Amino acid sequence: MTGLMPIFRRELAGYFATPVAYVFIVIFLVLSGVFCFYLGNFFERGQADLRPFFAFQPWLYLFLIPAIGMRLWAEERKTGTIELLMTLPVSLAGAVLGKFLAAWAFTAIALALTFPMWLTVAYLGQPDHGVILAGYVGSLLMAGGYLAIAACISAVTKNQVIAFVVAVVICFIFTVSGAPLVLDFFAAWAPQTILNAISSFSFITHFNAIVDGVIDLRDLVFFASLIGFWLFANAVVVDLKKASG
Amino acid sequence: MTAMIEIRNLVKQFGPLIAVDDISFSVDRGEVLGFLGPNGAGKSTTMKMITGFLTPTSGAIDVCGHAVADDPIAVKRRVGYLPEGAPAYPDMTPAAYLSFIADVRGLRGADKAKRLDYAVERIGLTGVMQQSIDTLSKGYKRRVGLAQAILHDPEVLILDEPTDGLDPNQKHEVRGLISEMAENKAIVISTHILEEVDAVCSRAMVIADGRVVADGTPAELEARSRFHNAVTLRLEDGATATAAADLAKLDGVAAVEPDGNGRLTLFPTDGAPILDSVGQLVRERGWPVNEIRVEGGRLDDVFREITTGRAEKPDQGAAK
Questions:
Q1: Strand partners for B7
Q2: What domain range includes position A209?
Q3: Which among A83, A90, A243 has the least Cβ separation from residue B87?
Q4: A-proximal residues of B, 192-251, CB under 8 Å
């Protein structure tokens, strides 16, 4: 893990050195609010919880997280700084994790800034704070999953637009893999066990379980192993592609 | 003298292309090795393998006693590297960028401040430290890359075209810096500028088609030039034509060529010194000489001969 901390600090500071961070945070907060209050009927439901807020988060992340992740490695390859980074005394794991954790910390900051939602429900009623906290934990884990995918795809190409589009598609597949949209495609010919396996990859299924307030070890393991797998793939791709122009 | 860089039978293949073809050499402390060669000769590829960016197809590289393949981090700690084109994070200021490099290099506290001050001062970056790197001129970007490479006072410096894009004054400064640091480091630079080899390198290595085709001190390379020990002289108008005919008959003179600016260049046979006999003849005849000098040899001439001559050699594979 040599070099993890300096890389983490540089990457995180990098978000705030350009308008990217502020644009992202503002858009994230505005869309979170709009989805929650208008599409989620936050007031009409008359319940003191954040379920409508969390319900739209997978769809928000689907587009916003690849936007954060797309530059992680594509930019290094485009500007040639990857040669610099990989000849500094840093390990591959340190570089991959440092970058990922910085981007994850940044999404955590954006997510934390939604705290007025929590204050609102706390003011309006008596919400179950444990359930809300679980929702935030689940949301952060899910963001990590999306981000690990986006980071890995970003290492495949020098072009950030391609990185973004491909990452959105893969994230979309993981988001809806429990829905008929995906399952019908396999249902005609694949056995039930495979269908179950595919639907078990659904971010939404695991996320909803956590938002319900049940932090099941299986859901935590799902997101953790998913992040681990994609980061491992990320390291492999970086090592293979670093020299190809 | 211990070899700081030791390279044995290095080969790098990109698909069907052999970029580096069985190169072996070593660089000692105190040496400044200049890599010369046409574009695509394998100079940068060799540097990228020494610094651990590329993995060799075969062969071994030791830097300061550590094998690059076994302990890349130990090697990278001891090496300062300026990659080709001096890449740096464009959104950062030199101050933030160099501070990041210092952190990665494990420099802390007073030590970090001291090394940063030294590099910034020595490279002349003081005025631009708070400007983002992408707004800097090409010369300043190169200097930021140089500052990054020397920041941790490495034992081994690998500089890929360190003076590319610098103006003559900056080139002079950078060469001065390299010469100054040479004493207790092993330095490898690549360059297209042949005068640079003369100015800073204690040893020059010409690479063509992935192979070492010449290796020696710049003076040894120059001695291979047909200009080595040639005598150039300028006579007052009118005398040139008759003198050329007489000089050509002189013992030891292989050829006499006008250089197009009213001077005559006398090429010696087998590179033997001819100044004495030329001087004698000039005195005997009483020619009015305005200028006379001995040529040391021209590196660009040698360079062209070595690197293009190879291509005309018969293909050994086809002969079998």
A1: B25, B61
A2: 4-241
A3: A83
A4: none
Topology of domain B231-295 in CATH is: Alpha-Beta Plaits (3.30.70)
How far is Cα of residue A81 from the mean position of the Cα atoms in its chain?
25
Residues 6+ apart with CB under 8 A from A228: none
Residue pLDDT tens, chain A, 245 long: 788 999 999 999 988 888 888 999 999 999 998 888 888 777 777 777 888 888 889 999 999 999 999 999 999 999 999 999 999 999 999 999 999 999 999 999 999 999 998 998 889 888 888 899 999 999 999 999 999 999 999 999 999 999 999 999 999 988 888 777 777 888 888 888 888 888 888 888 888 888 888 888 888 999 999 999 999 999 999 998 887 75
**CA-based R_g, chain B, Å:** 24
Nearest CA-CA distance, residue A12 and chain B, Å: 12
Q: How many domains does chain A fold into?
A: 1
Residue A8 Cα to chain centre, angstroms: 17
CA distance A58 to B273: 83
Of B53, B81, B104, the CB nearest to A6: B104
Q: Which part of chain B has CATH 3.30.70? A: 231-295
ipTM: 0.88
* Binary contact (A84, B148; C-beta < 8 A): yes
Domain spanning B3-223, CATH architecture: 3-Layer(aba) Sandwich (3.40)
In chain B, residues under CATH classification 3.40.50.300 are 3-223
Q: How far apart are CA B211 and CA A170, in angstroms?
A: 46
